[in-house]
Each structure stands twice: as structure tokens, then as C-alpha cells.
Amino acid sequence: MRKLLLGLCFLFVFGLTSYAQDKSPKKYITVGLDINPWLSEPGTLENSHRAGLGIRLDFHAKNNRAHSFNTGFSVLTLGDHENFLDITDSQNIEITEVNRYYKIGSYKLKYFSIPLIYKFQKKWWYLSGGFETYFKLNQEEIHGNDIRIDILGTDFEDFAKEKVRNANLAFSIAVAFQIPLGDAWHIYVEPNYQYLFSSVYKDNIDEINRNFIFLRMGLKSKLFLPKTGD
Fold first, then answer.
1. 163: helix, coil or strand?
2. 13, 119, 164, 166: which sits with the fewest CB atoms below 10 Å from its CB?
3. What are phi and psi of 86, to 5 degrees?
4. 14/221 Cα distance (integer angstroms)
């Protein structure tokens, strides 16, 4: 389904661009589709993070095409986080004062994000900086059949997914390279650094990195707008 939606978005942008270019208008916005593979480890379970997906919109200044305002959305996966489900009270055994019983499980830390970015660009490169707001996407918690036994009093932290912050804010900065493909299309590669202002979990209980480094790689096109008069 995700691949189908991306394909439809691409065809929609391509169709509108091709149609509008025949009219040779001057006003346009830029639409980009990208993937976001990680360059750094976010601090979740090893190899559990996935490349994100995003759509970008550039609104250009009327009299200076070098300046633009960038927004859109992305879906970003930090990776799986381990959690233990206390099942002591559900065991058909005599509960002692020294043992606790847990099922080992995990869930994905996944976000929907909206950027608010200023961009300064030239033909082959651009600089960008601003903020990106993250909203938590609720993910199913999956537990296996293995049971862990701990002695009562062992230092144990409950990483229940309910303790993940519902929203977070990140500072974002990037230097990117782009290759023109004719008048309307560009391929771009954007190393992106982000810093979260708050910890991923409430009360700062986690050790997940607040410094993110990943790539934005994709294809963008000028979406020409109809003339509205001089």
C-alpha cells in the first residue's frame, strides 16, 4: 500500500508538471519525494531502525528564487525499543517475596513529522535550517514466549510505550547537493542533522540519542502554477 501511494504521488506530480510546462508560466512551487536512511545509531535495538519517507514542498520568494520556505511531512522510525511485561500476578505458581516474572517484548518508536524550514539554494547546492515537530505514531507492542525471572529489588525500569512523549521538537540543519535534470527536475542528496529539545521518554528515563543524523535522498520537480495576471 505504501509503495502504491508513493507511485500515485509521483505520477500526480509528473502529470501536473508536464501539463503546466506546456503553458510556460513563471510561478511555481517545488515538490520533492524522498527517503531518509540513517547515518547514525539512534540508540534503539541494533539494526531495527528503517529508512523514513517524506514529501517536501518549497514555496519560493516572489522576487528571489534563491530563498524558499520548506514544509511537508515525513514518517521516521527510530527503531525497536525493548520492554518487559510484568506477569508475576498471572503465573500459576506460588509467588515468593524474591522473584518477579517478565515477558520480553518490543515496540517501534515511530513518528510523523512536519518541518518548518528556511532554504537558501543555488543551482548545485542549498543550505537549510529550521525546526521539525515530531508526533508519536502508536505501535503495537509484541511479546515473545520467553520469561525472565528477576530477584525482587533488582533495578528495573518500565519502558512502557505510554511513557513515550506524544510530541517533540527538533532543530534541523542541512547542507545538500543537487543535480539538475533539465529545467524542472532535480536529484538531491541532503545530509541532515537534527537535535531533539526533549528526551524521547518522559522523565528522561531513556538513553536514546537526541542527536540524529540521516540522509534525505530524492527527486524534486517544479510544479508550475497557472498565470493569474501581471
1. helix
2. 166
3. -75, 115
4. 8
Residue 203 zone, left/alpha/beta (φ > 0; ψ -120 to 50; rest): left
Using an 8 Å Cβ cutoff, are 225 and 25 in contact?
A: yes
Dihedral of the alpha carbons of 14, 17, 18, 23, in degrees to the nearest 10: 170
Task: Give the span between the Cα atoms of 154 and 98, in whole angstroms.
Answer: 10
Is 88:94 a contact under the CB 8 Å cutoff?
A: no
Classify residue 96 as left (phi > 0), alpha (psi -120 to 50) or beta.
Answer: beta
Q: What is the pTM of this model?
A: 0.77
Cβ count within 10 A of residue 111: 22
Give residue-wise pLDDT tens across range 70-91: 999 999 999 998 887 776 666 5
Tell me how crowded residue 157 is: count the other CB atoms within 10 A of its CB.
11
CA distance linking residue 94 with residue 65, whole number of Å: 73
d(CA 132, CA 93): 50
The residues, any chain, with a CB within 8 Å of residue 191's CB and separated by 6 or more, are 39, 174, 175, 176, 213, 215
Q: Tell me the per-residue pLDDT of 35-51, one tens digit each, with 9 for 90 and over.
A: 999 999 998 988 899 99
Instruction: Tell which residue, 126, 207, 193, 134, has the closest CA to residue 166.
Output: 134
- Rounded to whole angstroms, the Cα distance separating 28 from 217 reads 22
